[in-house]
Amino acid sequence: MTTLDGGASGSGMVAGGINGNGGGANFGSGGGGGGFFTDGIAGSGLANNNGKSYLNGGIGGTGNNNDFGGYGGGGAGWFTGGNGGGGGGYSGGGTDGNYPTVQFAGGGGGGSYNIGANQSNTAGFQSGNGLVIFTWSGAASCPSVRVPVTVTVDPIPVISVSASSNPICEGDATTLTASGLIASGTDQSQLISNTCMANFNQTDLAQSFIPSSNTICGAGVYLESGGSGTVTIQLYTNLPNAAGVLLASGSAVGTSGSFVDVTWPSVPVSIGTTYYLVFTSTNGGQCIGGDVAGGYANGQLYANPGYGAFPGFDYTFRTATCGGTYTYDPGALSGAVQTVSPAVTTTYTVTGTSPAGCTSTATITVNVNAAPVVNATATPSTTCNLTSVNPCATGAATYVWTGGLTNCTPFVATTTDTYTVTGTDGAGCTGTSSVTVTVNPASGTWRQQQAIRHKIMVMTSISITMQPTAI
Hints:
Distance between the termini: 168 Å
Largest sheet: 7 strands, antiparallel
Number of strands: 33
Radius of gyration: 48 Å
Structural class: mainly beta
Helix content: under 10%
Number of helices: 1
Strand content: 35-45%
């Protein structure tokens, strides 16, 4: 018989209480086994012959020694030779109530939360991608219905970020591009393919379209025939021969009879504005499928050199909307592509959030090289006309002066002017400095002296040339 808390009036084999309390004494003589939380009930045969709880400790009883029970162990018997109670554990232990006599046997071992036998536990397991089923079966007295539970586990995006230039010079900019979020759906599409519309070797193949989403993460085109090849799809603001600006590009191997789709980092676009997809392939014999009935109302196809227009015809294509968002810090910049110009070396963290709300981060450190401090001098900086001046700059590795000057090479100054030198250091960073050379005009006395001196030289020359020659 079992009791809720292991009472003292058991008979036969007595297990521990179901609340983790001590087991009862057998016939009130042997001590009850200790439970998990509390001691067993002491029997009347000997004092302190009850088993101690798991928490209270103690060794197992041996009989007639007033020994405590062990950790959830059985209590001592009434006299030497009387067996102790069964050891307590997760489930209460029993005792042999027939040796030597039932009234002298120790009480059953205390239980923890069970009576008699362990419950049945089935560990959770995974089967397939994100499918976890938890089951539990209770005792016969507490029946339950097995109910499968399906847990959907969305993947954590794997985010990466790159910089167009790194390191950069102080004052320069670099473009950060994040990627990793997958396309979440189709925006624009023309899915009818009833003919081979154009082979890649015809060149200049394009399709115009008008997006209804403000981002594009990729595009695809249907290959009607021609086997396999690497297809490149580019996104332009206009046709390339009409000053179109390239916004994105992606490549993938495509096989005839299926779509070939490419992806790129999220590109912001304006809803209601016309954009262009340009198609090329390493296999000129591949053919893009299309619809000759003009099934797509927001664009048309182009083919042949010069992007010849074919109104009413469309390639079989589709564009992809972006899934989730990107945010850069510092700056709280939103979007996959950001242009930054940090003044000092800065680490940027981009957080990608999928449509399911799962997030992942990536970091990149943009190293900034300080600009060289260039110092320009001119010796002398104030001088007279036709005087030699030496321009020199320091602080960099190489120098380029305005006015055709060469660093630390004298020149003849004729007019007042300002000269600027650009110095470049070993990292390719530049700094500038300027210096003004002031040329004072000649004074009147100096001019008169020069004129008189010139006149004397001329007269002397004439006088010498007019001397008669001796015979």
